[in-house]
Description:
Blueprint: H1 2-9, E1 32-34, E2 37-38, H2 39-59, H3 68-89, H4 93-112, H5 128-149, H6 152-158, H7 168-218, H8 220-223, H9 229-267
Antiparallel strand pairs: 1-2
Amino acid sequence: MDQLILALEECDFVNEPVCVPGDVADLFVFPNIVGQVNRTVFLIFLAAAIVIALLYFAFRRPSLVPTKFQAAIESLVGVVRNDIAVGIIGPDGIKYFPYLLSIFLFILVGNLFEITPLVNFPITSRMAIPLFLALVTWAIFLVVGIRKQGLKYFGELLWPPGVPTGLKPLVGVIEFVSTILVRPFSLAVRLFANLVAGHVMLSLLLVTGWIFISNLVTNYGEIGLKGIAGFAWFGLGLGIWVFELLVAILQAYIFTLLSAVYIESSIHPAH
């Protein structure tokens, strides 16, 4: 956000109706805070620490009549355990519940950084993080499939039962590619693209609106009535802020849900 504000402040608001920085890459480069730790790395560890703190303080001394904080965390845990782990995978889902809960809370916190004042940066808008989480899910459902079915797991992908013999080679290739090769990337790109789009749109609207409003107050003679557009941009940005809150929650839920679906497909393959 600081880089975006700096870039906007250097724009010519009188002659350039659309502010374009000299090098867009400058908006995505963060200086190191300490050593090799930049802002992104710091926020990753911060998100992990927040998840650990939420679970620790909610369940270290659980009471029969839970506090509002404990009840809120218990409801999140219950959704992941009952609706996703057990609801999608079945009784075996309890084994994978810790992993599903971990990625749900981590992604949720990382997504909510997008609308957190003074942060305004979702860590999931860096492709490496969604891709890493997707590859972990990919590795889990492959290992589970091999453990449950042995080499038959790949055999039924390449030669799917219940399909006419003439179509089996084509369907087998499609199933193999979509299941083994495409799944981790589609899972990662879905999360990454939604958070990047929301982050860029929210940042541009709020920061552009604020800069135009500030210049309207301080430099009305130069910017003129163009500054009034800043109120519209800023108001629209606030509306997008509420929308992005829903997106942050929904994308964490979808990523976790699809992870459970992929694991379930390895445990209980369709015939």
